[in-house]
Amino acid sequence: MIEVNKLNKTFGNHHVLKEVSLTFEAGKTNLIIGASGSGKTTLIKCMVGLHSPDTGSISFNGLVFNELAKKQQRELRKEIGMLFQGGALFDDLSVEENIAFPLNMFTKMSRQEIRERVNFCLKRVNLLNVNNLLPSELSGGMVKRVAIARAISMKPKYLFCDEPNSGLDPQTSILIDNLIQEITQEFNITTVVNTHDMNSVMEIGDNIAFIHQGKLDWQGDKKSILRSENKNLNDFVFASQLFRKIKAS
């Protein structure tokens, strides 16, 4: 579980996050949605330690991150997996080398143990016989699946996904959504997904937080989002013609 309590973050005179309090549950896909510039990316970056909040706290299973010693913070970061928007694979490394990278850096596993872990992760994302391929030889969907395999290679307790469906076709997006949800439930991971994709919201939105102008404006699940009377949320959700039709039906 991750708990965010009264988080504030400013850049110069711009107050990006304003008293944001949220709880993200283990074994659930916790989605953060909102328009561009709403503060959701800043919230994610604060949670993974890329930004330091001005005030407020972020706790991981009761451990308040900013109260930990540097060594403890480094240990906690090993329990965090990150799926970046573009996959962020190393272009000059093979698939196997990409997935093995954090294992080589942060563990004392033998070469054989690392190879076995890599193969387990590839099998879990439904990729076989791709170990020696370079990222340039993969499709967009395969790149995202390799990135997921790398993100879970360290057996993380927490998984952060930044726009995981960016640049993917609808069919591949559904595959990635389902894979994230399956892995979350199977390994009881606290998963936080930053997304604009309303299809993802309706597919895997166990817990949804809507951020508007730096504030938490609505919370709920995929069943209640279409019935909400929150004007800001409705303006965001029903911006597309498809969801306007759903609202009207």
Task: Provide a descriptive summary of the structure in words.
It is a single chain. The chain has 9 helices and 10 strands. It has about 250 residues and is of the alpha/beta class. The protein has a 6-stranded mixed β-sheet. It has a 4-stranded antiparallel β-sheet with strand order 2-1-4-5, covered by helices on one side. A hairpin with a 2-residue loop joins strand 1 (about 1-10) and strand 2 (about 15-25). The relative contact order is 0.17. The model has no long low-confidence stretch (mean pLDDT about 90).
Cα separation of the termini: 37 Å
CATH architecture: 3-Layer(aba) Sandwich
Number of strands: 10
- Report the CATH C-level class: Alpha Beta
Compute the CA-based radius of gyration.
18 Å
Question: And the CATH topology?
Answer: Rossmann fold
Shape: globular
Hey, roughly how much beta strand do the residues contain?
15-25%
The largest pleated sheet is described as: 6 strands, mixed
Order of helices and strands: EEEHEEHEHHHEHEHEEHH
Decide which structural class fits the backbone.
alpha/beta
Stretches where pLDDT is under 50 for at least 5 consecutive residues are none
Q: What is the residue-averaged pLDDT?
A: 91
How many helices in DSSP terms? 9
Please estimate the helix content: 25-40%
User: What's the assembly state of these chains?
Assistant: single chain
* CATH superfamily membership: P-loop containing nucleotide triphosphate hydrolases
Counting structural domains, the number is 1
- Major sheet: order of its strands? 6-7-8-3-9-10
